From TrEMBL:
Pathway: One-carbon metabolism; tetrahydrofolate interconversion. Pfam families: MTHFR (PF02219), MTHFR_C (PF21895). This is Methylenetetrahydrofolate reductase. One of its GO terms (cellular component) is cytosol.
Length: 522
């Protein structure tokens, strides 16, 4: 979706419209820095910014890294992404390569910039086969724009003539096709509404050696600036995060724009903002804890499920006993497990964490689960999702590894519980099930005002057989390889991989669920 469309949609209500915000990041210089950035980004994106953007290094110095970060932001972090693109040292061929790349990745937003002069040069010089200014770039890509501060004189103000000329030039950019205007970073709000004010320098001087005090002052200053901007009727804030999380979120918290306890979810999982997946609203539950793997393995599908799962057999997926460990993970005592890409357990897991810990100690090694929900309000932090004023439902579900003997006993006990359905398979593909291979089971759904019923999560036996290859591979690739060849732990993990079954178990009675009762006598 285009950023301008999201902004107009959010602010369409005029004075009653909400203030929207966005975050800007820059490419780190190391691989470790990149991964740390994505961890911060995941946490910040949970607060639903309108978009996030990533900068383009001077002269295209970070071109490939910027392109890769933008791709991951749009498709794996699942946030509307705007990529900076500059003219500096950029022949048209290099610009077209960048545009073709982001188009392929489903990115629709570009911030068009002339860019700073290359290092060591005082003035911008157009290279042969390149553009002279952002206007040329806007006309070429017809997307976005940013103003530059060259008309500002030493006193921090533009002359009336320069100011008028810059506004006229800005209008030409808009007329050429720019949709969104992003200002340079600024500190004086009065200049923004009609560079560092002396009162800020004075306030920082006595605390300059106290990092925490400087950060706190920055948050307070940013908050007051934003309040003044918002009081003028402006309802869009773009925060230059400098890749820092706490200060940006601190400002938004002070403004009342976010609350840690009220993070909303349009769906139980985060949908990529990729242009090609905008209508996707149904997924198999098996990848609930490995969403990036699912997105990667389904990239390139001609159609993504919308409204119902349909016939999954037509879709092709891309390639790809330590009971105490599993128990501690279910109780939240371990940050993650090899079967999860998430930072921590989902909030809803706390509802059933004791039951999960109990069955892990009995040899049922859980990797995915959800509690039953019968008409909970969509705003409820633990299980809610979707628009306000709705109600959500889900069937109890648990997925686990267990030995063949335990599976046989479980199958026998399940006969006394007609609401239970299961699919089990081992590494070699031997299948044990009481449902058909094409019997798709909706396990999460929601009812909302003025909408059809949404069912975003399903148990699909066909997809389960695809998922099992990935799930079993993790025993060796994600865990056993951490130990040396002659380590007994490695031998044990490989034995589990080769002999255990992967089991998907659903209690279809979401009103009077008794899923864990079947494990009682083990």
């Amino acid at each position: 979706m285009k950023v301008i469309e999201k902004i107009l949609e959010s602010t369409a209500a005029g004075d009653a419209g909400k203030t929207v915000f966005s975050f800007e990041f820059f490419p780190p210089k190391t691989e470790e820095g990149v991964e740390n950035l994505f961890e911060r980004m995941e946490r910040m994106v949970a607060h639903n910014p309108t978009f996030c953007d990533i900068t383009w290094g001077a002269g295209g110095s970070t071109a490939e890294l910027t392109l890769e970060i933008a791709r991951r932001m749009q498709n794996l972090v699942c946030v509307e992404t705007m990529m900076h693109l500059t003219c500096t040292n950029m022949p048209v061929e290099k610009i077209d390569h960048a545009l073709e790349t982001i188009k392929k990745d489903g990115i629709q937003n570009v911030l068009a910039l002339r860019g700073d002069p290359p290092r060591g040069q005082d003035k911008f010089v157009q290279i042969q086969g390149g553009f002279a200014c952002a206007l040329d770039l806007v006309e070429h890509i017809r997307k976005s724009y940013e103003a530059h501060p060259e008309v500002i004189e030493s006193n921090g103000l533009a002359t009336p003539e320069a100011y008028a000329n810059d506004l006229a030039y800005l209008k030409r950019k808009v007329d050429a096709g720019a949709d969104v205007i992003v200002t340079q970073l600024f500190y004086d709000v009065d200049n923004f509404l009609k560079f560092i004010p002396s009162e800020i320098t004075a306030a920082l001087e006595p605390i300059k050696d106290n990092e925490e005090a400087v950060r706190a002052y920055g948050v307070q200053l940013g908050t007051e600036m934003c309040k003044k901007i918002m009081a003028s009727g402006i309802k869009t804030l773009h925060l230059y995060t400098l890749n820092m999380e706490k200060s940006a979120l601190g400002i938004l918290t002070n403004l009342g724009l976010i609350e840690e306890s009220k993070i909303s979810r349009p769906l139980p999982w985060r949908r990529p903002t990729n242009l090609f997946r905008l209508k996707e609203d149904v997924r198999p539950i098996f990848w609930a804890n490995r969403p990036k793997s699912y997105i990667t393995r389904t990239t390139g599908w001609e159609q993504y499920p919308h409204g119902r799962w349909g016939n999954a057999s037509n879709a092709s997926y891309g390639a790809l006993t330590d009971h105490q460990k599993f128990m501690k993970y279910c109780l939240g005592q371990l940050k993650t497990s090899p079967w999860s890409e998430l930072d921590a357990l989902q909030p809803e897991t706390k509802i059933i964490d004791e039951q999960l810990a109990s069955i892990n100690l009995k040899g049922f090694l859980t990797i995915n689960s959800q509690p039953p929900v019968n008409g909970a309000k969509s705003e409820l932090p633990s299980v809610g999702w979707g628009p306000a004023g709705g109600y959500v439902y889900q069937k109890a579900y648990v997925e686990f590894f267990c030995s063949g003997d335990k599976l046989n006993a479980l199958v026998e006990k399940s006969k006394a519980y007609p609401s239970l359905t299961y699919v089990a398979v081992n590494k070699d593909g031997n299948l044990v099930s009481n449902v058909g291979i094409n019997d798709v089971n909706a396990v999460t759904w929601g009812v909302f005002p003025a909408k059809e019923i949404i069912q975003p999560t399903v148990v699909d036996p066909s997809s389960f057989l695809i998922w099992k290859d990935e799930a079993f591979e993790i025993w060796s690739r994600g865990w056993a390889q951490l130990y040396s060849e002659d380590d007994s732990s490695r031998t044990l993990l490989q034995e589990v991989q080769n002999t255990y079954y992967l089991v998907s178990l659903v209690d279809n009675d979401y009103i009077n669920s008794n899923l864990f009762t079947v494990f009682k006598d083990f």
